[in-house]
Amino acid sequence: MSAAATILIVPGLRDHVAAHWQTLLAQKLSMQRPVRSVPALGRENLDCGRRVAAIQEALERIDGPVIFVAHSGGVVMLMHWARQHRREDIVGALLAAPADLDKPLPPGYPTHRELRENGWLPVPRERLPFPSIVATSSNDPLGPRVRIEALAHDWSSDCVHLGAVGHLNPASGFGEWPLAEKLIARLDRAS
Predict the structure, then answer these.
(1) Which residue pairs from 47-52 have beta carbons closer than 8 angstroms and sit at least 24 positions apart in sequence?
(2) N or C: which end of the chain has fewer CB within 10 A?
């Protein structure tokens, strides 16, 4: 039996949040398998290149297979990473509630100009070289379902519709997100 893939958490544009589903998932899964996290850099440092480098640095410290678990802007960071890097032992990626950065974000988030100047735009739309699942919400203020489905199609990702879960963050009532474990298991089985 081969070793379980390491889970690599890729947060979006936030600081560390103890009640975020990714934080809770990391704590829970670390009892069963290796889990690592890319440092959360918040909304202050928008340099996408630095964030892509942080993903690569985290991967360089992991031996063996990896499953990415990215959320929101972390999904876009991962798309930029996949455009620039290759690693043969990526089992797959769970891409939860990707932010649609091609459209202006609500107040309190970076502007289109800031995102462009910091290397986020255009959002990569190439097919991913590993299996992936995009989890969409019917009422996500940062990613309208029809636009996220189009990204999932371009990335050659399976799509899972979650219903009305907002942006799948503590402000939307998440906390714990048990379905993440089932979707990770689905990626594990597919490898």
Answers:
(1) 47/118, 47/119, 48/76, 48/77, 48/80, 48/118, 48/119, 48/120, 49/119, 51/77, 51/80, 52/77, 52/80, 52/81, 52/84, 52/85
(2) N
Q: Determine the Cα–Cα distance for residues 183 and 181; give it in Å rounded to an integer.
A: 5
pLDDT for res 1: 36
| pLDDT of res. 44 | 76
| Residues of the chain under the 50 pLDDT cut | 1
pLDDT tens profile 32-59: 999 999 998 877 789 999 999 999 999 9
Domains and their CATH numbers in the chain: 6-190 (3.40.50.1820)
Under 8 Å between Cβ of 102 and 122? yes
HEC per residue, the chain = CCCCCEEEEECCCCCCCCCCHHHHHHHHHCCCCCEEECCCCCCCCCCHHHHHHHHHHHHHCCCCCEEEEEECHHHHHHHHHHHHCCCCCEEEEEEECCCCCCCCCCCCCCCHHHHHHCCCCCCCCCCCCCCEEEEECCCCCCCCHHHHHHHHHHHCCEEEECCCCCCCCHHHCCCCCCHHHHHHHHHHHHC
